[in-house]
Amino acid sequence: MKYIYTRFLLLLLTFLMTLPSQAQNVLVYTEDFENGPGAFSLNNSLYGANSGSNRWIINNAYDGLNLAPNTLEQNNTSGGSINFAPKSNYLHIFNLQLQGQNVQNANFSPTSAAERFVSTRGFCTRGLDSVRIAFFIHMAANPGAQVQLLYSAEGGDWTPVPNGVFTVFPLWNYVEFYNEAFDHISNLRFGFLWKNEAGTGEPATSVGIDGVRIVGKFDPVKYNVRLEIDTVMPISVCRGKEVTVRVNNPVPLCGDGFYEVQMSNEFGSFANPPVRLTYSASNLSESISFFPIGIPPSLNAGDCYRFRVIRVDANPFIFSDTSACIKVTDCPNNIYTKQPAVTKNLLDTVCVGSVIDVPFNSDGVYLNNTYIAQLSDSNGNFPPNPNVLGFSNDDASYPLGSPPGSVSGLIREQPHPIPPGCNYFIRVISNSPSVTGSVYGPICIRRCDIETNDKRDLQFCVDNTNGADTTIRVKIKVDPPPASYTPPNEFQIQVLDFTTFQIINTGVLGKVSAINDTLCEVSIPPLPLLGTVGLIPGTYYLRIISTQSSQPWDQLGTLIRLTIGAPNPLGVTIELVDQLTYQAVEFSGDTTVCFLGGMLFRIKLSEFNPYSTYVWGLNSDADFYTGGPYNGILFNSLGDYVIYCTETNYGCVGPGSNKINVSVKGPPNPSIIGPFQVCEGDTVQYKAPLTEDTYYFWTTSPGMVIDTLNNQAQITFPQADSSVISINVVNECYGRSGTRTISVRKPPQISLGADTTICAGSTVNLSIPPGTSQKVYWSMNDGEVFSQQPDIAVSPDSSTLYNVKVTNYGNLACEAYDTIAIEVEHKKYLSAKYIEICPGTEVNLQTDTSATAYYWSTGASGKSITVKDTGWYIVEIDIDSAICALVDSFKVNTKACYQPLILPNAFSPNDDKVNDVFTAEQTFTYEAFEIIIYNRWGLRVYESVNPYFEWNGFDLSGDKLPDGTYFYVAKLKHFEQSDKQKGTVTLLR
Prior knowledge:
With 989 residues, the chain is mainly β.
């Protein structure tokens, strides 16, 4: 199906580029009032008195209930047909006095004078001529009552349209008005003024209006509408990189337009453009830039690639001139290795023998390529033949900002051993071309004693009634030194999240009491009970852990992958739908259908699973199309078909559908199926039936067809306006066309601005611009609404994503969303510094961080301070590049410093309690101390190792010594220094 679409799109665009440059009809606005007033504002005061009991209303009331004449039904026309006749919604005057009696058809009270005005919003007709308004009108003959058609151009006065006064139209008449004042303006509005004089009589039939159409002709030649290439920058660009194209728009048009930027081949030819991108831009801008335009990696290097721009929402298209040549060159490829999930928990080190999935981004060109994940040695170096974690045969590039690629493998010792350590690095390389990527790390790897299931991954398929059971092997002592396990040890199964590596459950899926190699049963519950164990179908990491290991680092085993699939056990059923009525067509498995109404085959699931893939089979092609469960198969060929469908969920294949046989016959059907009202910016899918050998040409104005699959179109509505979707269907027999008018409502305009980062404790004001009739809903990560005020102030204490939804009031409210991430940082506390000083001395405290400002707890503001008191000293450091301040701290304590002995030169041991002993006047606790006292003949009379010694004048034998002079030698050893003191002391009794 994909390739059919591609060939068709190229053929269609080739056909469009050959269209002659001539005026094309454009449906500016159409209104059948089936979904409310659309662009009409009822009973406003823009013109006239806006008074009286007779008022404009829209409904499908035709019965006067014997209180007023019945309204003529819409199958009574003077020519042509009214959509949704005979009793469709229509615009009309009714008597408000009869509303309480349920009379709301086209009637009025002649006794109450009234002037009531209804007007459209503004329409753009720039670039259009022959602009005209057409509608059906019915009005009975009522003296003194009339309706007048008026217009306003560029916000000017309301002006009556010549011949636009209506009094008597017995049938529903089709009328059309043209005035050159409608042509080529930015703001054209139409209005209907009802007037009736006060008189006598019963309620009478009033005016009814329906089927309003505003059309014109777009002629780019008449208004010289064109685009002119201004610049293409840069003029030399690498394959896989981007350029900007700027064009001049000398004749600005209205609203937003859609522009296709095309890039030629290297020879300047646009016959088969290698690049085609569509952008939305304001047609009022005189200079339009298109950025970014990616240069495909597969392009050949060349010196003359050119660009041109086509406005594709105009019919015919508007082509710019072609740019000057730019050069496309080969440039270096780059690979950026990212963090594997198994390393995201810093407290959980991965084991040798574990599986690993290494994400990466890359840019450049890769052909016949293999990405390879490599592991460094324990010193962080990559030897010539490093250990390989895994391979991925992949020619794609994954630029920064896009979802990364991934290389899956195993942490294995080939060809080098992997000793435990925390200085390992990982990188991803490619072989075609040879590119060495950046490294990620360091990471920690350890050698674990437990090996999970012989390193083999687990895959289970479950359903509503059946779970899955298996037995996995628990192997211990796989790495020296072996651990021992003591009762009551359990080996437990632990499951971890595949993205965050957070533990989901432990021991829930299985556990076993053992102290040696063993087997452990794994039990996966059936689908309804998966949530009770914290699981859903998907992929996880799994390992064995131990509860009683002699080596704590061996409690965790090697990692494997656990994948659980759960396709719908009921299978899928196929339903045949009539495209005109959108009703199911009865069939019993073999049916012949008429294609006059169009037939669509849809997959109907009893329960949709967004994580499943659905493969449709057609005839012998079992893999005809892969897509969501509601992607319809529309046949583009008459004939006999067999259709079926299967679901696959994480590798598990569902039971599939029944096979049905269908015979399709008939001509093409141009019916368009889709909503009548959308919101500005919406992208909506519209459909038409499909037949073989049929070309489908979708257009919309304003709006843009951004994606088509033959009979299906994705259409975006960039502005609040009305849009007309058209389809021309041509096959080998004849052609048909269809249109649908879409009312595009304006959503609220909101913007929370860019994400921001604050320091904890700061406040951020969030505000929604005021709007008419709108509701505001603020929520955070949990989705719970916490405020409905337009202005709020938040002070998050952790990083928080704030969401806001703003809706207009009404049954068809439009919504606008925005988010702002507020990252919260906290003050960073540096390691405290402990400083000891000698009593009475000073010390200089200086932070080693350079900054713009310092705030000390003492009030000082320099990088350093000098203090002599003990205690804590704190400094906050402001750094330009940091949101929060750094905090440095110093603890000043005193220490015991070295001091010499101070000894007296005399003492008198006469027991008078005064100076009776020879002892130190000042001493200190030394690491080692010794004092020896000698008499004048050099004989030792006293010694002590106590720095607090006391000599009473007796010798070592206990005999009293005579008066005289004695000599002492004191040896002092302190942590800081050693000393030896000598001196004399006189003993006087």
